[in-house]
């Protein structure tokens, strides 16, 4: 009996001291992710993925590319360049996917604005109008709005649900729309439909202009990729021959490979930057 009373007393003391032993701020939800990797994941459509996943994939690809290059050529410099290329491959793919997502979604945001205007005119509340996009919105955007609908039904808090929706969409135009809705929700006003109508016209004009300019400048990226890849294919073919491998194994050959890698990366990035249209920045992201 003494043991039972001792256990009850210990449990009571533990419950009394629990607010100091485990403060409330330590039991809150995990803080928002930050950093370049998390932002790349968000913009590529993997907002719920772990930031360690692309890092682990980069490490595996780096080791794989390094081993294959070493077994094929026996040159340490080539293996080093291949390892660097393998480490950069996942992040390059994430950036490309984010760019394709922005391009495919650019023409859809004007339809989202039009649907929100129709819902506002029909007398729907802002949470219901945004949640309705899970069924009436453009198909590529419906999963994100469906998660907002579920989140809104669970929490009942529009502001936090809108912030999570903005993080899931990770698009500059979506930021403008959601921040406009948050402002209208917080301060009210009768100019929401006019603001959304002006935003829809601006987004539609910007999407048309970017599509036209992008079609005319698509050759720049193709030329940059060919200009970077072609010399390394030739280097790989030369390194497969014994005399070529012995030449590139010398100090001068190693210097040529390393300097060539630096020049290739610099020239590629410079070409892409010159031919790239400036992307709009995200709002409060």
From TrEMBL:
GO-annotated cellular components: plasma membrane
InterPro entries tied to this protein: T2SS_GspF_dom
Signal peptide feature range: none
Domain Type II secretion system protein GspF: 113-238
Membrane topology recorded in Swiss-Prot or TrEMBL: Multi-pass membrane protein
Transmembrane intervals: 6-24, 45-71, 77-96, 219-240, 252-272
Domain of life: Bacteria
Pfam family, one: T2SSF
Main location class: membrane
Keyword Membrane tagged: yes
Subcellular location: Cell membrane
UniProt entry keywords in alphabetical sequence: Cell membrane, Membrane, Transmembrane, Transmembrane helix
Keyword Transmembrane: yes
This protein's name: Bacterial type II secretion system protein F domain protein
UniProt source species: Microbacterium laevaniformans
């Amino acid at each position: 009996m003494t043991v039972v009373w001792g256990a009850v007393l210990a449990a009571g003391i533990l419950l009394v001291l629990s607010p100091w032993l485990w403060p409330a701020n330590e039991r809150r939800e995990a803080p928002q992710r930050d950093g370049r990797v998390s932002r790349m994941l968000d913009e590529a459509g993997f907002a719920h993925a772990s930031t360690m996943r692309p890092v682990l994939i980069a490490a595996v690809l780096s080791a794989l590319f390094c081993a294959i290059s070493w077994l094929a050529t026996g040159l340490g410099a080539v293996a080093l360049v291949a390892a660097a290329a393998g480490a950069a491959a996942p992040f390059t793919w994430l950036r490309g996917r984010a760019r394709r997502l922005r391009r495919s979604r650019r023409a859809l945001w004007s339809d989202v604005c039009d649907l929100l205007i129709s819902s506002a005119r029909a007398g729907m509340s802002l949470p219901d109008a945004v949640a309705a996009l899970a069924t009436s919105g453009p198909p590529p955007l419906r999963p994100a709005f469906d998660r907002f609908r579920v989140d809104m039904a669970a929490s009942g808090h529009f502001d936090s649900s809108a912030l999570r929706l903005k993080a899931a969409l990770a698009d500059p135009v979506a930021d403008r729309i959601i921040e406009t809705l948050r402002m209208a929700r917080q301060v009210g006003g009768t100019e929401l439909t006019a603001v959304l109508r002006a935003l829809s016209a601006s987004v539609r004009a910007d999407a048309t202009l970017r599509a036209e300019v992008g079609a005319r400048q698509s050759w720049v990226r193709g030329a940059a990729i060919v200009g970077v890849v072609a010399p390394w294919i030739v280097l790989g073919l030369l390194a497969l021959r014994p005399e070529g491998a012995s030449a590139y194994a010398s100090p001068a050959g190693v210097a040529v490979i390393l300097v060539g890698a630096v020049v290739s990366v610099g020239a590629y990035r410079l070409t892409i930057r010159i031919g790239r249209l400036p992307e709009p920045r995200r709002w409060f992201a």
